[in-house]
Amino acid sequence: MIFGGMITVFSNKIVFPGLETVLGIENIVGKANVVYLDGYAYNFTNPDAMAKWIVGVAVIGLVISGVGVRVCFKGKGKL
Predict the structure, then answer these.
(1) CA separation for the pair 53, 44 (Å, rounded)
(2) Which of 25, 29, 31, 24 is nearest to 46 (CA)?
(3) 54: exposed, middle or buried (C-beta count within 10 Å: 0-12, 13-18, 19+)?
(4) Which end of the chain, N or C, is less surrounded by CB atoms within 10 Å?
């Protein structure tokens, strides 16, 4: 439950440094929506795509929390 809640609360922090490093910003927002600046900096021009990833991670966190609640409260009498 707690793990899912933390995923939901920190979904913004998970997507940007975590998934961006693993998947790459071009895969998340689309190659056409990334503008590279000097050095390693970049801007992305499609905030809707990033919002979809953040909401997706938050939903996964809610599902994990829901499963945790169900296991803790509904599963006690099943043993």
Answers:
(1) 14
(2) 29
(3) middle
(4) C
**Contact call for residues 46 and 33 (beta carbons, < 8 A):** yes
Q: List per-residue pLDDT tens for the chain, 79 residues long.
A: 787 778 777 777 776 777 778 888 888 888 888 888 888 788 888 888 888 888 888 888 889 888 888 888 876 665 4
User: Per this entry, what is the length of the chain?
Assistant: 79
Per-residue confidence (pLDDT) for residue 78, from 0 to 100:
55
Q: Is the CB of residue 5 less than 8 Å from the CB of residue 68?
A: no
Alpha-helical regions (H) of 1-79? 2-9, 11-13, 20-23, 25-29, 47-69
